[in-house]
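Protocol step 4 of 6: record predicted structures for both targets in the notebook before any analysis. Target 1:
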Amino acid sequence: MSSQIEPAGIPAPSTDAAEWATRANRAARSVTRSFGGRLLFLPGTHIGAVSLPKTTRRSLSGPWHYWWQAHYVDCLVDAGRRELASKSKFDGDSRPSAGRLASRLVTTIRLRNMLRFVNDYYDDMAWLALATLRLEKLAEETKKLGRRRNAYVQKCLTLQFDSASTDHLGGGTFWSTKRDFKNTPATAPVALYYARTGHTERAQQLVDWLNSKLLHPERGLYQDGLRISHGEVVVDGAIYTYNQGPVLGALLELGGDDNLRRAALLVDAVGRELTLPGTQVIRGDGTGDGGLFTGILVRYLAVAARDVRLSVKTRETARSLVYNAAEAFWSGRRANPTPDNARKDTPAIVFSFDPQRPASETYPEGAAVELSTQLQAWMTLEAAASISGN
């Protein structure tokens, strides 16, 4: 399968490991220095501003997006794994390591969430549980403190997942505490979390429910969910890019012939159904929550690209999708004219939320820039770095 990108202005993607690591480091520095900061000026805290430029009033009274922060943790863990391999900090020796920032961020999420890790949405909690599980493994490898706190998060949130994964509607996981909607956004990351924590039977039951209830028979992609409306069960047939990612992750984590076959079919379906016309560039899903969608899918495509149990053809498809998305975001970036970090509320690099359009169009100078969209580009660059040289 060709890794070339057709649209004018987007070059063929690099496969150079050092170059992707450099790009990922630049994205990490841009996000952590500009969006990251203390909560209420409290020492030892770190949290991401929802958008820039930011105001103290808006950051305290407006939404702070728990699940965006969870993906911020995940991005920091990605950077931390590269720090471990290179034995150098992504932001220089005088600044905190990525793992230290991730640990502070988890603590600050609890502070900002009224001293709790529990919230009303099970998908939000699943993303944080997955991120802290990865952070715990990073802490083990670096022999850093924080494992006790991470274990507490997982114990607390596992109880929530157990309560939300019921036999209603034949299985699956509820999306919220309203318990009127079971969907892929909650079921897939909970299944992946169960698989990674050794609860394989529970994980497989959730995956089987997704396959039987929400897998589109013709398109080979997972629909959004089953909703209870006026006593009736209604299928929400929307297909979102990010939903495919954690399903793919769960299939690969569980393994076995059936799951691996389904994973290969899913990679092919993504390349066929979710790319921009005439390209192998995954489509964007806008701003807000949608500003994370493409990045989440690419994260798990990178997992598939590294999985030797999959065929060479499937791995190459996954690699091509990862590299093309990363190159699109990188080539479309807008660098601010001010020196790096000269203004705290100005990112050194602004990434577009649409891989087909440059940031100079989607985020012209002076426009408010959302954290979700910048995390998306960062995690996509980390995904490319993770498969380079393999």
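Target 2:
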Amino acid sequence: MMENNLKKTVLYENHIRLGAKMIDYSGFCMPLQYTSSLIEHMAVRNTSGVFDVSHMGKFILNGKNSMDLVQYLTTNDLSKIKIGQAQYSCFTNNHGGIIDDLVIYKISEKKLLLIVNAVNIEKNKKWISHHIKKNAYNIEFIDSSQDYSLLAVQGPLSLVYIQKLTNIPLKMIPFYNFEIGEFSGIQNVLISCTGYTGSKGVEIYIPNEYAEKIWNDILEIEKNKIIPCGIASRNSLRLEMGYRLYGQDISEEITPIEAGLSWIIKFEKEFLSREILQKQKKKGEHKKFISFVVEEKGKIPRQGYSLIDKDDNIIGNVTSGIFSPVLKKGIGLGYLWNQTPKTGSIFLSIRKKKIPIKIVKSPFINIKNN
């Protein structure tokens, strides 16, 4: 009954045939796993896996004011990238909070492709439409979320395997660049060197009518070498890289400065909430995003767990946590509400027990993708 009330990608029946366990994810019926999350996780780290991430929002902005609009609504500087490149950025609200994080593809000086989180599609549409109307911009705004599918092929051997399906030299595409060409016999396919796992790979944007063909071709090109992967392994893979997840690690109540995303804020340009973020950065009195490991065996941090000091005072919270399949220990992301304690350690509170944690820099693991 659950599945009847949820949106489905065009590959839904394929996931069922492959024996996937389906769950509600951002209002979509998505595969949690096909075999096990551990097998799928390690396939992406060691060989290759393919994800159906067609639930992601896909917006097209086309017109002479497209760049002006996106420059104003996002924190990063779109003028710094060329046609054929992509950029990670975020929308902020009037108070500096993160409306959404997104990837922007510069198709031309007038045409942009925006990839947004599925849970925020409607919110983002209203936000963008409001500002187009407010500024009387000459922009064609198309929501292509339900018209295009998105497949992510990730892993150190992924490009070797799928190279057989295209004449585009995949290894020659730099990180956060893209090419448009033929893939698996289909013309005008956008292939980008991006992903949410940290491992080498590409994301492939295709009209829905060709999604099943390309999905099957990817799985068949190297039989049993590229395996289908679900949401569970996608989550553990992104966590090993310290990548934020909207709705857990970032939200409209958290600014990009608090979220440790100052590197995507370019104060030399004008953008919405610029002054608010400048003041916050200058003042320096804000909660701090942290990455941490749990050295004690068998202890795994979970969303909502408290972070405490030596005197049992709650000083922060965990937003994401897992057992890392690569490190073989618990890792987590979270926030310290005040500055890091000057003396003593920080602890994870699990069932009233104090478990020591060690703050580290993300990513948690080093990946060699050469």
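Step 5 preliminary note on target 2. Helices lie at 12-17, 37-46, 66-73, 121-134, 158-162, 208-221, 231-240, 274-283. The two ends are 46 Å apart (CA to CA).
Proceed to step 6 after PI sign-off.
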